[in-house]
Amino acid sequence: MAEDMHELLEKKYPGLSRGVKIAEGPRTNGVFNQDLSPEMMLVEVGGVENTIEETYRAAEALADVISDYYWSLQEGEGS
């Protein structure tokens, strides 16, 4: 699902996504409550270098892509 989101973001908003990163190493278990549901993923929007306006625009783009993804799944169920 995360890879699908990344690909959709790249297609619709090239360069917006920094890809899918798996947290690993001695200081993390890499879970971040994603074990609470099989379809759970953590999405981070914006960073210290971004303005609040840039962060809002990124969140709107992400919402747009999540909506597209959701509706594409709904269309697939009706087939």
UniProtKB/TrEMBL annotation:
SUPFAM superfamilies: Zn-dependent exopeptidases. InterPro entries: Spore_II_P. It holds the Pfam family SpoIIP. This is Stage II sporulation protein P. It comes from Alkalicoccobacillus plakortidis.
